[in-house]
């Protein structure tokens, strides 16, 4: 797989004198080629681990491929997988519903928590740095299996959360093991990992010019008014950025659901997220063709949601370029 | 018609490109220019099993210096994902461990080597195996795996707690109704629910079906009706109503977690429904003394089940040598001594007698005693579960839990499971 650095045939013709004579344009061309050479490991990686598998999965989504056989044994079934998904698979629609609930409830709560805490931390007080670090910590750990396991034990029947409730004489239950509350604990876990958007909000808050607040104060604005009329508009590009990113994250929720339900989406499918159902179809039911089709529908849906967010962004995101 | 053909052409190019690149990088690492063979070997299990397996393989290399092994092992979780991925890439290990949840999936897709001709020529020796046991590796008339151990269904109970509360201990042969009454009484006396609710447990359901003259499967079809499922769910609804079992959220814990978190271990129930050879693993995780009997009802509905198999990959470059290795692991007395009862009671009855005589672990002794007691009563083994079995299992959990949490009546839940199970075995 050796990559030749440069076609050597060129060299003899263009000695130092020749390249000098041809001057800048030739040099520029040379640099471009060198750039691609240096990029080649990344380009190869992109092709081998992203582009080719994606095309492959697009192909497989039109077949009945079962994972265990070789690709050549997969039969072309046209749009059957897609047809079955939309018309004949209640589990698919169930997974869509669960994911929508997770993303549509979890994302705003998470952004709200992130903004709230960012505003609290956007003051100078002793140990501010420590607090910022502590609040950021969960999102560093958040995606990991370990945190999901801890979450499981906290919301278990004999877990810390119920011990806390028992102080008030409330008898809890195994929250992660009950279909009516399991998804709620997952949403809570996602909200708790608000550190990443919080840090971005903090950076955004630092950018809001103090003069605006001072001017608002002179006009006698209340703090609520200041928040609505100064902070939010000035912060809107950052809010927009976080909203897009976290919405996509929300749709992709997998690890916590996988770990908390032991890889089943249970109890009674209450945590059967879209990506989990996709995984189960591919690896537990040996319907990789179908799972590939699900993956493409997922990709297109997230693309559409992002486009819609960008469209609506025109109406509420304000970019101040400094000269207005 | 042309669109698929065009796509296929494109795909062939797309697939061929990276393969060619990869091929250029690595040589043929299995090349036997020096007469040596390296076989890849993959299993699931814990550290103890890894040690024993490595030792047994080292013994093989000692006797056949031309064969060495490249071993990989991991916990049960994720094992079959990895095996499927390796198989998809035509890179499956030469020898791999498998169980009856997946044997048919792999065998019907021709991943496993058919061992029939090796058996006929004596290169795979099953003459010392109980007949039902090696036949439990036959899928579509092909011997897809060699049973590496035997086990059977076992009802494990907490002897310490029951004796402390002066409660009767469950016995093999107790009827289902009596068992549930006992569980309710023992639960009231000990303040720990008497039994895990096994309505989501396919093996309990299976034994119960066989006692009622039915079965889980008949070839590639379901051998029970929707009404049977409903009766099964209603039986346990009754048990839950009398508080013989824990509440639904706790039952789910037992369904969802691995064997070391079974309710009998975590003290959330006095009995759990397991495989008898799991006794040592369970016992290790609790200070209380456990004991094991057969599932309720007529014990002749239970059978000698192959706890797991070794299979040879059909695409292996050294099939004959790989086959010789699994034959060695199953039949060689020295290898059997090393492997012990880690994968169940040795399949080879001579080895089993020798190994059983040296077992010291009381939990394993209890498991062997149960097997010895039942071996005379065992009914004929059912055929190995068909393709779709793993889906049937998860659908049963889903439906049973819907009934447990009350989100569906036993009637509705049974209907839902029956339809899903039918689709799973047909698909």
TrEMBL record, chain B:
Keyword terms: Signal, Sugar transport, Transport
InterPro entries assigned to the protein according to its UniProt record, in alphabetical order: Bact_solute-bd_prot1, SBP
Keyword Signal: yes
Signal sequence segment: 1-23
Highest taxon listed in the record's lineage: Bacteria
Gene3D superfamilies registered for this protein in UniProt: Periplasmic binding protein-like II
PANTHER family, per the entry: ABC TRANSPORTER SUBSTRATE-BINDING PROTEIN YESO-RELATED, ARABINOSE-BINDING PROTEIN-RELATED
Protein name listed in UniProt: Multiple sugar transport system substrate-binding protein
Organism: Actinoplanes octamycinicus
């Amino acid at each position: 797989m050796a990559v030749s650095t440069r076609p050597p045939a060129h060299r003899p013709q263009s000695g130092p004198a020749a390249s000098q004579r041809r001057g800048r344009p030739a040099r520029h061309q040379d640099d471009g080629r060198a750039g691609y050479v240096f990029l080649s490991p990344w380009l190869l990686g992109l092709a081998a681990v992203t582009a080719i598998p994606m095309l492959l999965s697009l192909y497989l989504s039109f077949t009945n491929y079962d994972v265990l056989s070789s690709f050549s044994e997969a039969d072309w079934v046209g749009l059957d997988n897609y047809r079955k998904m939309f018309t004949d698979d209640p589990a698919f629609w169930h997974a869509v519903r669960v994911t929508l609930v997770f993303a549509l409830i979890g994302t705003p709560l998470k952004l709200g928590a992130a903004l709230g805490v960012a505003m609290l931390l956007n003051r100078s007080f002793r140990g501010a740095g420590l607090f910022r670090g502590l609040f950021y910590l969960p999102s560093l750990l958040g995606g990991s299996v370990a945190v999901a396991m801890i979450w499981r034990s906290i919301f278990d029947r004999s877990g810390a959360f119920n011990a806390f409730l028992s102080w008030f004489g409330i008898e809890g239950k195994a929250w992660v093991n009950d279909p009516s509350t399991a998804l709620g604990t997952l949403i809570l876990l996602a909200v708790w990992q608000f550190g990443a958007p919080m840090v971005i909000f903090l950076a955004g808050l630092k950018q809001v010019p103090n003069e605006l607040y001072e001017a608002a104060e002179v006009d006698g604005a209340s703090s609520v008014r200041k928040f609505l009329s100064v902070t939010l508009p000035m912060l809107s590009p950052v809010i927009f950025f976080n909203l897009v990113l976290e919405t996509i994250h929300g749709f992709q929720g997998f690890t916590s659901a996988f770990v908390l339900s032991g890889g089943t989406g249970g109890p009674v499918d209450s945590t059967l997220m879209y990506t989990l159902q996709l995984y189960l179809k591919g690896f537990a039911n040996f319907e990789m063709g179908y799972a590939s089709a699900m993956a493409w529908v997922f990709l297109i849906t997230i693309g559409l949601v992002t486009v819609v967010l960008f469209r609506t962004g025109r109406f509420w995101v304000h970019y101040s370029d400094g000269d207005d | 018609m042309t669109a698929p053909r065009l796509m296929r052409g494109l795909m062939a190019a797309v697939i061929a490109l990276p393969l060619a690149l990869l091929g250029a990088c690595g040589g043929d690492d299995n090349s036997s220019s020096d007469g040596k063979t390296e076989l890849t070997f993959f299993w699931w299990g814990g550290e103890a099993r890894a040690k024993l397996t490595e030792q047994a393989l080292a013994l093989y290399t000692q006797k056949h210096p031309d064969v060495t092994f490249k071993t990989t092992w991991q916990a049960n979780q994720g094992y079959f994902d990895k095996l499927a991925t390796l198989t998809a890439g035509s890179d499956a290990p030469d020898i791999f461990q498998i169980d009856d949840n997946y044997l048919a999936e792999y065998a019907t897709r021709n991943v496993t080597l058919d061992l029939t001709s090796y058996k006929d020529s004596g290169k795979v020796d099953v003459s010392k195996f109980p007949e039902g046991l090696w036949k439990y590796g036959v899928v579509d008339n092909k011997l897809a795996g060699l049973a590496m151990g035997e086990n059977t269904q076992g009802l494990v109970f907490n002897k310490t707690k029951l004796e402390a509360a002066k409660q009767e201990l469950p016995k093999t042969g107790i009827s289902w109704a009596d068992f549930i009454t006992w569980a309710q009484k023992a639960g009231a006396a000990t303040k720990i629910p008497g039994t895990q609710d096994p309505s989501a447990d396919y093996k309990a359901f299976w034994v119960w079906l066989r006692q009622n003259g039915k079965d889980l499967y008949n070839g590639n079809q379901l051998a029970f009706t929707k009404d049977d499922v409903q009766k099964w769910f209603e039986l346990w609804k009754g048990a839950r109503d009398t508080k013989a079992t824990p509440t639904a959220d706790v039952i789910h814990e037992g369904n969802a977690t691995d064997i070391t978190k079974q309710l009998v271990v975590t003290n959330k129930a006095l009995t759990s429904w397991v495989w008898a050879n799991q006794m040592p693993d369970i016992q290790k995780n609790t200070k209380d003394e456990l004991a094991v009997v057969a599932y309720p009802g007529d014990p002749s509905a239970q059978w000698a089940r192959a706890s797991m198999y070794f299979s040879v990959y059909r695409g292996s470059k050294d099939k004959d040598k790989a086959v010789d290795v699994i034959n060695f692991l199953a039949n060689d007395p020295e290898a059997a001594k090393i492997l012990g009862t880690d994968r169940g009671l040795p399949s080879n009855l001579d080895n089993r007698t020798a190994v059983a005589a040296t077992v010291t672990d009381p939990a394993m002794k209890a498991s062997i005693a149960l097997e010895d007691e039942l071996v005379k009563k065992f009914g004929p083994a059912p055929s190995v579960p068909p393709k779709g079995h793993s889906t049937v299992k998860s659908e049963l959990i889903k439906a049973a839990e819907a009934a447990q949490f009350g989100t569906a009546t036993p009637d509705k839940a049974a209907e839902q499971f029956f339809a899903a199970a039918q689709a799973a075995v047909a698909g």
